[in-house]
Amino acid sequence: MSQPTDQRLQDTINDYWTDRAPSYDAYQQRPERRDLDREAWGRVWASALPAAPAEVLDVGTGSGHVACLLAGLGHRVTGIDLAGGMLDLARTHAAGLDNPPRILAGDAVAPDFPAGSFDAVVGRYVMWTLRDPDAAVANWVRLLRPGGVVAMVDSTWFTDGLGSLYGDRPDAALPLADATSIEETAEAMRRGGLLDVTVSPLQEVLELDRAHGVAPGHDVQLQYVVTGRRP
Ligand SMILES: C[S@@+](CC[C@H](N)C(=O)[O-])C[C@H]1O[C@@H](n2cnc3c(N)ncnc32)[C@H](O)[C@@H]1O
């Protein structure tokens, strides 16, 4: 990380997600929704990614929901995160699988892998909380092989600003946190060097959220998958 302020901000983010990891994970694993989620999200990712088995990097993997699901679809998955509490849970979930994802500590903005290591870079609910989304996308492009894709799921979660979510950090330090349109995410992906950037609404996920509700303190919101390909 280039600047001390970047490091302090990232430390704050990591601490927040470590504290929140158990309740976040419990919500991800709700029994009444688990199978429905697996099917719906399986369709989302299958339509966005190359055919399995592909080499996939899941940035900001959290407790490993996406990493484990993609591994279950037959991909060879590496999930990275910087929050220790999340990494512990992701490793626990991965341990029970036949084709477990590899779970590593790593920075989504600057993942430390050789160029051309992956067929796809994915992330869910991560773009909004990156301290430098443009630099992150540029780094992901370098990690892709020819024909590789980036697929990011996100929404406009904090259109009125982050408030005190991460303490007193200014919203400006996280360029997409208070985005009012998913087009801002798409633009970051274009600026990072991706071609054919496309935004697709996730209607099936919206219907699930409407039927089952969302995490306490959150509103039901349309989510999107934003995809682009390596030049
Ligand atoms: C809202 S959670 C999403 C977790 C997971 N992708 C999911 O779909 O459930 C955001 C995650 O991004 C991680 N994160 C934020 N900034 C990161 C960074 N620079 N590098 C790695 N992980 C990061 C957090 O630690 C947290 O686990």
Radius of gyration: 16 Å
Bound ligands, named by name, code or SMILES: S-adenosylmethionine
Q: Which shape, going by the Cα principal axes?
A: globular
Number of strands: 7
Average pLDDT, to the nearest integer?
Answer: 94
Contiguous uncertain segments of 5+ residues: none
CATH fold call? Rossmann fold
Structural class: alpha/beta
Say what oligomer this is.
Answer: single chain
Kindly, what is the distance between the CA atoms of the first and last residues, rounded to a whole number of angstroms? 26 Å
Under the CATH scheme, the architecture is: 3-Layer(aba) Sandwich
- CATH top-level class: Alpha Beta
CATH level 4 superfamily: Vaccinia Virus protein VP39
Fraction of residues in β-strands: 15-25%
- The string of secondary-structure elements, in order, is HHEHEHEEHEHEHE
Q: What is the spatial order of strands in the main beta sheet?
A: 3-2-1-4-5-7-6
Total helix count? 7
Protein name: SAM-dependent methyltransferase
InterPro entries: Methyltransf_11, SAM-dependent_MTases_sf
GO molecular function: S-adenosylmethionine-dependent methyltransferase activity
Domain Methyltransferase type: 57-151
